Amino acid sequence: MGTSSILDGNRFDTGRLDALDPSSRALVERRMNTLGTSYRLFYRRPVQIVRGLGTRLYDAEGREYLDAYNNVASVGHCNPAVVAAVTEQLNTLATHSRYLQDGIVEYSERLLQTFPEPLNRVMYTNSGSEANDLALRVARHHTGGTGIVVTSEAYHGTTASCAEVSPSDGGGGLPGHVIAVDPPNPYRHEGDTSVVDAFAARVTRAFETLRERGHQPAALLVDTIFSSDGVFPVDGALQAAFAAARAAGALVIADEVQPGFARVGTPFWGFARDNAVPDLVTLGKPMGNGVPVAGMVANTEILEAFGRDVPYFNTFGGSSVPVAAAAAVLDEIEQRRLFENAETVGAVVRAGMEELAGRFPEIGDIRSAGLYFGVELVADPETREPATAFAADLINACRDGGLLISVCGPTSSTLKIRPMLTYTRADAELLVERLGDALEVVRRQAKAGVA
Prior knowledge:
The protein is built from 12 helices and 16 strands. The protein has 451 residues and is α/β, with parallel strands linked by helices. It has 2 domains: 173 residues, Alpha-Beta Complex (Aspartate Aminotransferase, domain 1), CATH 3.90.1150; 256 residues, Type I PLP-dependent aspartate aminotransferase-like (Major domain) (Aspartate Aminotransferase, domain 2).
């Protein structure tokens, strides 16, 4: 079975069942006896979460954890406005989008106002995976090509077509119509050309290689801050890569499932922070704050032929209850100005991390946009050797200290930190404090030779 850089970097080892307390061990065994073997649990000692509220999660023993990873509930666990909207809609009507309803139209009008003018149509799905699957279908239909370029640790979903373009899922090698290129990584960039130009050149070469293989270009598909690759919000990188893809005859698909909905701050979308405009945009995870709802945004010209030839329909995509949840999330972001909060509180977290970097040489690089952080850990600041084992120890020390984070990147040595948009300054300071405490714990363990 293959390994996944995003799922296995923080995986519970089922061979360590005997190390768990009796209650946890019994529940894990029941889980193993009923769920498919592909499922993973987080942490060396899995956390049994029974309740969530705001920025906090609570385990079966009542212990509180600061959630700095779950970007699904981006406006807070059990957000009262979202709960009320969903409850009211469930008590009124729950049906699909083939009946005429106000909700889907009103929400679509509001959602599209957050996009630049060329992006003026939206189609709804249940998940980001389905949204990316739909975008790939549209791109192939529009271009007549099949060739797809992605980044080397990309994750774009679980459908068959999305798994093919997700190198990080551990499912094996990429098919011939897909090529993965390294993301723009200033920390590890080498050569005379700029990191931006080098990235664009890799995209150009990839499409040339696809043509040589007999696959005409269809799409460049990128997470707009390269989340699974290690978080790289590099100014100019999207603009250059988008231009390279279009020059090759491909469409550009911006995967906003992780960076979208104000995660990066006032720009609202990852592509917008780089003043780049894609052809298709995919949405998911935080869109409904836990209620499954996702979508694809495009322009009329690109959708025209697809809409004429393919009568697409999704039973739950765009149905009454998910749309109500999505509308409530948008209300929360706009009315509470959470896009501004992402910038101001994100700056507090960033400053705290930079202070920690001055004390802990294991912190090699800090990358961030709004409330999304990638903290790359190294075994040696000079050689920049990835500190994979140290990262694994650290996220588990954080878990034991009441802070939930994870890892990403090709060597699972980059901390992936996604505080909720509702974080306060106090939450931000607590995050940094607990991360610092965990760094101290792991450093002491390393000196003592404790695994």
